[in-house]
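Possible regression after last week's pipeline update?

I re-ran a chain I had predicted before the update to compare outputs. Posting the input and the new output here so someone can diff against the archived version. Not blocking, just want to make sure nothing changed silently.
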Amino acid sequence: MNEAEVRKQLDRMLGKRDWNVDNPAEVSIEFEMERKWGNISGPTVELYPTKEFADYLLYGRDRRPLALIEAKRTSKSPRSGQTQAAGYADNIKAEYGIDPFIFLSNGEDIWFWDRLRYPPRIVRGFFERDDLERLAYQRHSRRPLSAIRINHDIADRDYQAEAIKRICGGLEEGFRKFLLVMATGTGKTRTAMALIDVLIRSRWINTVLFLTDRKMLRDQSYGKRGFQGFFTEACGKVKSGNFDKTKRLYSATIQTMMECYRDISPGFFDLVISDECHRSIYNKWKYVLTY
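New output (post-update):
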């Protein structure tokens, strides 16, 4: 696909996440800025020597920029536009005081870049407006994890506290994935719940998915030894292909999520805990985990 065809594809992908590309209050196409690049050439530069254009700019409900999208033809890597997109983001930051999120796409692959927190990473689709507004809020409201005390009513063993502290330390260093190995009976669920509690109280996360490969483990994470026992936030079990977006804490089996995961925005969950789902990672369930 050439770049024009890629943009038609991106329009459809944005529409799937409830972005209306025909509504300028939501999406600005070919967003115009003063040119600050002196090392690029092409037809656009010749036509508009003092201007440059971001392919898409996505707005929040306050009509302020949330994210920009840089599109490339399919034959190019999406990340070939990373430096260019960073320049556009710098321009927007200088104008609006907002560092927008960045999507890079060639119509097939999409990369998401939160420059203030993590390196670019591949994602399975664009995020909804609610997702981006939530992430923007977390950027500016989150507290240092070291300032939040672990709730010992949830996890009171020294090794549980040590595991939580190490994960929190890694998060503050910019890591996003962790493997916690604990023997049966050592309190993995309580450790996970205490970690969730710390991350919620520090305003690092809002939405959580506790993913299991058996109904027994799903019910355990949802019940009195899990969400219902330790949290006041709205929680629910995903029992069928119908997903209720009104909750904050979710328990589900990977088999059930297989029925509905494509209907959920890739940016909906702030935290995913996979309890023993590694046993399914190499069969057909792996698509849920990578999504």
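Follow-up from reviewer: compared with the archived run. The first strand starts at residue 27 and ends at 34. Marking as no regression found.
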